[in-house]
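U., I forgot to send this yesterday:
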Amino acid sequence: MRAVWLLCLMVLGGAALAGEPRARDLGVPFDGAPGPLNAITDVAGVTVGQVTLLDSGDPKHVVRTGVTAILPRGRDTNALPSFAGTFVLNGNGEMTGTAWLEESGMLEGPVLITNTHSVGVVRDAAIAWRVRAGGADASGYWWSLPVVAETWDGYLNDINGFHVKPEHVFQALDGARGGPVEEGGVGGGTGMICHEFKGGIGTSSRRVTIDDHAYTVGVLVQANYGTRDALRIAGVPVGQHLREHRVYSDAALGGDTGSIIIVVATDAPLLPHQLKRLARRAALGLARNGSYAGNGSGDLFVAFSTANVEAVRDHALNTAQFVGNDAINPLFLGTVEATEEAIVNALVAGRDMQGRDGHYVLGLPHAALQDLLRRYGRLAKH
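Result:
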């Protein structure tokens, strides 16, 4: 089979080109103060790598998929775990490695996101990547339970073609960088659909202050959920107005059958149980945009902290700092705000995409969104 792997952004591929507007640029109003990049990489040390796979050669086997890698500590991720917690809002999905994460309170390695039927190969490749990096433990072998999450891209992508290969996972991990994060139909989000518009990867961040200490919360989402009528942006019932070109009948599918993966990062010192609390708050940001976590939706969240480096070195006795529970509210609020904006950024970055069997999904129309925001008195002034 002919395989042309295009590791680039294309308008037809569903992704925004460099320099194109994000949600704030269109006048969508958001609360809170973002970091300089308004991305998960505003949390120092966090890197993101993405591989986008596009091939239109065979109409029955159109490729619209990929993989996204988030490394909590960049190049030090293999050697240094992070305190972490997870939360499942609705469990019709998969995130591997979470049993041990919940037991230990540690995220050991990267977080990877892909399509539903590529979880296995991505998981195995993540182990191979870690072994290849060297530095195994005293036994000579790495013991590894990678965290790999998924959403379903089978409407646009030949999901049963198993097009994600180990080398693509290696490329995403080795290519992870700080700086701006590509959004829309890229990486694991290449073939994803959100509220029946083109969805995919989105990111945002918030700066918060607790007792004169400045911290950052960053969020990255792979958005593949939602019904059209339920979509709300900045409180405006956008989906009830923009009803043209609906992808499929939500009623026939039993309502919201999509999924979303949300990754929350912070440099605030938090213990694992507090990070689980942070992960829960992502659900509130998701709800602001109209999700009701339907029966068929896989809404899986993970949160980690890059603080407490010495406490995660696994000495016999460790000392960790943590924000007091009575002081944690700004981090909760920042998570809600950044999650809401990350999802809207994914929608704004989405571009029209044609996939397998002629299936076609439109990107969220920017001018129509601005007209609705203006009509409801919600268009922000620049």
